[in-house]
Amino acid sequence: MTAVSNIYPTAALRAADAAHHIHPFTDTKALNAEGSRIITHADGVWLTDSDGNRILDGMAGLWCVQIGHGRQEVADAVHRQMSELSYYNTFFKTTHPPAVALSEKLAELAPAHINRVFYCSSGSEANDTVFRMARFYWDQMGKPEKKAIIGRWNGYHGSTLAGTSLGGMKAMHGQGDLPVPGVHHIDQPYWFGEGGDMSPEDFGIQVARKLAEKIDEIGEDKIAAFIAEPIQGAGGVIIPPETYWPEIKKILAERDILLVVDEVICGFGRLGTWFGSDYYGLEPDLMPIAKGLTSGYLPMGGVLVSDRVAEGLIDKGGEFYHGYTYSGHPACAAAALANLEIMQREKLVDYVADDIGPYLQKRWTALGDHPLVGEARMKGLMGALELVPEKGNRSKKFANEGTVGTLCRDISFNNGMVMRAVRDSMIISPPLVLSHDEADQLVAIARKTLDDTYVELKRQGKV
Ligand code: PXG
Predict the structure, then answer these.
(1) pLDDT value at position 5?
(2) Which of 27, 189, 232, 358 is least enclosed, having the fewest CB within 10 Å?
């Protein structure tokens, strides 16, 4: 890292942050003792902190900055929109040009059977919308007893009451008596961590069949929907075995239950397809979206609604009592349109599928030869490294799960790259505009970080 300037009053900003700012998903007391890192600028895949250090953004912000940071074109589009119409709502029989244009664009990009969108401001709100919409759909279809929703352990669908409930993060459930009633969870397709002696293929089938078992247990006539991410993101880039989604599809084809595919991370090119559903050949009834929709330039989410759900939601008539002040916000819609225009013009989805995806996958999976790495996996531009105390032994884990991951994450930051730690695995999800040269740098920093972590763990007697 090169320290080029120190123009920001880092210490004063840190002190004020500690005094007044409560950070998300943070032990605030511990953070305040250490102090936040202050990011002041970003450009392309590079962040700059208040001490002038340049850091490779291996997480695209929080899995969202598809087009890279600092694209003037988006700022200009938002500025233009704000000068014309900075805010108006989409309630009470009104709409505005950016909401109309974006809806048309999303219908064009989404799978053929999806032609409508409901807007909100985040992935969590999208899943709250899903929760209410799925139940409303079945009410409208004359089956009000279909209320239960099945999610997966270690799935992530956001941090609101519905998002936390649908997700399967036990630590989150533990705070506030969640999930809310009517939500059930099945096992995740996490072969490396939970596959035991089975082959990935057999494990994929076995764990998919848990869905059929759960449906039988609750009763198909009481179930509204099954919700899942194509590849779990926050859960640790859990790439399901190839057999998993085909088996889930088979199970759902024989049962009258909505499929909700949470595209908040996998949507908008992350897997080299517009949506994760395209990658796995899924036909979701509802698709929550956010993040890459605007590349994070402004907050916006939505739920893409299939023609099937539109039949209950729209064709049957009647009002769905649901909506947000900022549903379809004009400035956010303008940001989304500019973002999607850049993605299409620069063919970023193809770039991930045919060029930078395969390029980075090859180099990232080669990190699997490192003594600390039990598995290196990657699809599209989302990857993970499983850190293990004993290579070749999947059942052996580090004591105090998460400690080694956090150590490695801190070392990575100091080496000039953001990786995210999930348990003791390291995660990357870089901007889709990553160049070959930047991919090489990413892998070089990751390898150095693994080496440095290994030396430290040796010193501590943990490997
Ligand atoms: N669904 C999925 C699949 C997500 O990954 C949400 C819904 C909720 O979106 P909002 O916009 O409400 O945050 C997410 C969000 C992490 C991390 O540390 C992941 C997310 C958010 C914050 C942190 O991996 N995913």
Answers:
(1) 53
(2) 27
Are residues 61 and 182 located together in one domain of the fold? Answer: no
Give the pTM.
0.97
Residue that is last in its domain, among 345, 360, 384: 345
In a domain, 161, yes or no: yes
Looking at 345, 371, 403, the residue that finishes a domain is: 345
In a domain, 245, yes or no: yes
Asked if 406 and 452 touch (Cβ cutoff 8 Å), the reply is no
Predicted confidence at residue 391, as pLDDT, reads: 94
Classify residue 210: in a domain, yes or no. Answer: yes
264 alpha carbon to ligand 1 midpoint, in Å?
Answer: 7
The pLDDT value given to residue 7: 73
Both 377 and 261 in one domain: the answer is: no
Dist. CA 106 → ligand 1 center (Å): 21
CA of 64 to the centre of ligand 1 (A): 9
Pocket of ligand 1 (CB under 6 A): 62, 122-124, 127, 156-158, 163, 229, 233-234, 262, 264-265, 290, 420
CA of 96 to the centre of ligand 1 (A): 28
* Atom number, ligand 1, closest to the C-alpha of residue 263: 3
Report residue 232: phi and psi, to 5°: -65, 130
Residue 290 C-alpha to ligand 1 middle, in angstroms?
Answer: 9
- Residue 17 resides in a domain: no
Task: Supply the DSSP symbol for 202.
Answer: H
pLDDT along the chain (463 residues), means of 10: 66 95 96 94 97 96 98 98 98 97 98 98 98 98 98 98 98 96 98 97 98 98 98 98 98 98 98 98 98 98 98 96 98 99 98 98 98 98 98 94 97 98 98 98 98 98 93
Give how many domains the chain has, as a whole number. 2
CA 123 to mean position of chain CA atoms: 9
Ligand 1 atom closest to residue 124's alpha carbon, by position in its atom list: 12
3-state secondary structure of 16: helix
Ligand 1 nearest-atom number relative to CA 125: 12
Residues 385 and 351 in one domain: yes
50 and 164 together in one domain? no
Between CA 186 and CA 218 the distance in angstroms is: 12
Same domain for 401 and 358? yes
* 376: containing domain: 44-67+347-460
CA distances from 298 to 64, 98, 292 (A): 11, 14, 10
273 contacts 350 by C-beta, under 8 angstroms: no
Q: Do 152 and 241 fall into the same domain?
A: yes
**What CATH number should be reported for the domain holding residue 376?**
3.90.1150.10
Of the residues 265, 266, 271, which should be mutated to test ligand 1's pocket, given the most ligand atoms within 8 Å of the CB? 265
Report the separation in Å between the CA atom of 265 and the middle of ligand 1, taken as the mean of its atom positions.
7
